[in-house]
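Reopening this ticket.

The earlier resolution said the output was attached, but the attachment link was broken on my side. Pasting everything inline this time so it's all in one place.
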Amino acid sequence: MGLRRSVLLLPPLLALALGGCTTESGAEPTRPVVDVVSGAAVLEATTETVLLPLDGYGPDAGGRQLIQRAADLLIEDCVARKGFEIDLVDVLDYPPSTQYDLNFFGVWTRERALRTGLGIPYDALSEAHLAEDATVPSDAYEAILACPDGDDEDAASLEESPSDSVLERGRTDSWGWASTDPVWEEALTAYRSCMEALGYTFDDSHTPYSPAIADAVDSEAGIRAALDQVDCLSTTGASQTFVDVVAAYQVVFIVENEAALVAEKKESEERVGLARRVIGEHGEG
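Inline output:
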């Protein structure tokens, strides 16, 4: 449900778009020296996902959905104690959402381009959440925002705090470093040259990745532009280069923070285990 989705659950790319990476003192972290290896990251067009080195230290898509479902069940319980009844979308009934995956550098799969053009992508789960929002009684909003209860130990244990997470810091920092790396910038130049050769222009004050068009982003022109974007990202190799640069920074981050990452992985596995228990106690799973 969009209303109660915590900002702590925002994907790292969206978090990056909302704010840059800084250290606890507020200073920019020191950029490490990296070697970019071609193919170090895996772009999977059929699932619209990317596999990066840091992904092995957190829950996978299935684990994240288990945690989300358990948290939703506890939200329903909390709201019921306040005198309201809501029925949240069962995320386990849907493939994992890819709404924000790699949207940082634009549309990169033909299926997504055909679906929404240059617009914000959607999928079955995100659509279900939009429909879910429309069914919530207006007088239940305050109760939802007040949940979970502060004394709900299971709910507290399911939550994670990216502000204290080495894993999330690594993800945010690696994307931040990568997007200003000379290899990334060279790939961006090649991609933009490809688009400009097709007659497109860019509004860098909005985004340096997607072309500026006069029509609606999901119009026929928007779809055509998105398909051209996919082709240019592919033919120039920019999309693969972008994620390979990210992977290079993540490899260095892992070397420097492996002990803390291993500890967080253990905590994530415990959260998934707790989620399974909560779901089971509610007669699901």
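Reporter confirms the inline version is readable. The two ends are 21 Å apart (CA to CA). Confidence is low (pLDDT under 50) at residues 4-20.
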